[in-house]
Input
Amino acid sequence: MDRNEVHVAFEILVEELEIVGNGLNDGGAEAFKTGEYDKAREAIEMATRLSDFRDKVRTLQHDWSNLFAPRIAHRSTRGNRGRVAARLQQGLRTPEDGFRRPILEALVELGGRAALDDVLGRVEDKMKDTLNEYDHQPLGPKRNEKRWRNTAQWCRNTLVREGLMESGSPQGIWEISDRGREALRLGQV
Output
């Protein structure tokens, strides 16, 4: 397995963890809706543990990329997928890190705070040359949401944890923090 294949393996692992997380979210929401609060609480606890684990995997992925930074070709545009994409046939969605700057820029352009769909509409415009056909596929047979939107929402969670976005915003509203504005201004995202 060469270095690029390890990077792709990390991407596949992160994607699979996100799919499991989405299932926990859906199950927890359904349990809450039907009044099964113990089940909902269990789903929240498991989703929290899974999210922490996913963050550890992302840290390892980042460490791996930095270990061989000059030699690993990262895919940042549609045309730079190379032989690995063809061989794997899936798992080469745009990485979560690719959404960091577009999300923060979109929030600034929208006045610092906006509804999820408004932010993601702006992000899609910004990333139209980066998102590939795999990003535009639905997450699965039961979920009609496009993969890139799900990845962007996971990126939002990461940005909130890092303090670059506000955590106390109302549901469905995304808001950049002062720290996020500063990081964007300094080119640190």
About this structure: Confidence is low (pLDDT under 50) at residues 70-90. The two ends are 30 Å apart (CA to CA). The helical segments are 3-33, 37-67, 82-88, 100-109, 116-126, 147-161, 178-185. The longest strand covers residues 143-146.
